[in-house]
Write a structure and sequence with these properties.
Layout lengths: L1 H23 L6 H26 L8 E3 H11 L5 E5 L7 E3 H17 L9 E6 L5 E6 L6 H4 L13 H14 L2 E9 L2 E8 L10 E5 L1
Length: 215
């Protein structure tokens, strides 16, 4: 039930985003809007079909898992317009991942990175996803490094922070472990800060891949 509720909320967010885009382009035959609709409507239809399948035959599906391609499209749409670069490394078809974990960690890492823009207007944020080996997600920015004292405690205990960075990452790390994944700070130097979510036993890959959008 909780997973299906989460799916429905994400679908509603996606539809609201499309409605908002259409409202902003009222009276204009925008090629960008047409491209957005052509790209997103099939994804929404697939997600609706998957949700309906779970309702009709819950015993045949794992509610914690989602098609990686659908998850990736939903993530990009959810953060559309926030000036984030999205790259994918390899085909996502026929790969499934724990969507609740990836949603929670991705949103947390993205918000933490974007919070740096208050002090750095030129901050660049890049999200890279590799479907291989159970899925690997990297969120990187070119802002200030995490302080050494904070970095040493990030995943071990809640760390006081004005932005809530320490508490959120601690909770995300614990959630990752429960799903046999791990969250780590893969790079931490001025101009290159990267957090990586990867399956246990799968070493973090160098962030990179085929660019799929900058929104």
């Amino acid at each position: 039930g909780a997973r299906l509720t989460h799916d429905v909320k994400n679908l509603l967010q996606s539809l609201n985003a499309l409605c908002s885009a259409a409202e902003q382009n009222r009276g204009a035959d925008s090629p960008e809007l047409q491209a957005l609709i052509r790209r997103q409507l099939p994804v929404i239809a697939q997600r609706l079909t998957a949700t309906l399948d779970k309702l009709q035959a819950p015993q045949k599906s794992d509610p914690s898992q989602m098609d990686a391609a659908i998850w990736w499209e939903a993530l990009m749409q959810r953060h559309n317009g926030r000036n984030i670069r999205f790259d994918i490394d390899g085909p996502a078809q026929d790969t499934r991942l724990p969507a609740e974990l990836f949603d929670s960690v991705a949103d947390n890492l993205i918000e933490n990175a974007l919070n740096k823009r208050a002090d750095n207007k030129g901050l660049e944020v890049r999200v890279t996803f590799s479907p291989a080996r159970g899925g690997t997600l990297a969120v990187c920015d070119n802002g200030a490094a995490v302080g050494r004292n904070i970095a040493s405690q990030l995943f071990e205990a809640p760390v006081p922070s004005q932005t809530g960075l320490g508490v959120g990452l601690y909770q995300s790390a614990r959630q990752a472990l429960r799903s046999s994944y791990r969250l780590l700070l893969a790079a931490n130097e001025p101009g290159k800060v990267c957090f990586v979510l990867a399956r246990e036993g799968a070493g973090p890959r160098k962030p990179g891949g085929r660019e799929t959008g900058n929104s």
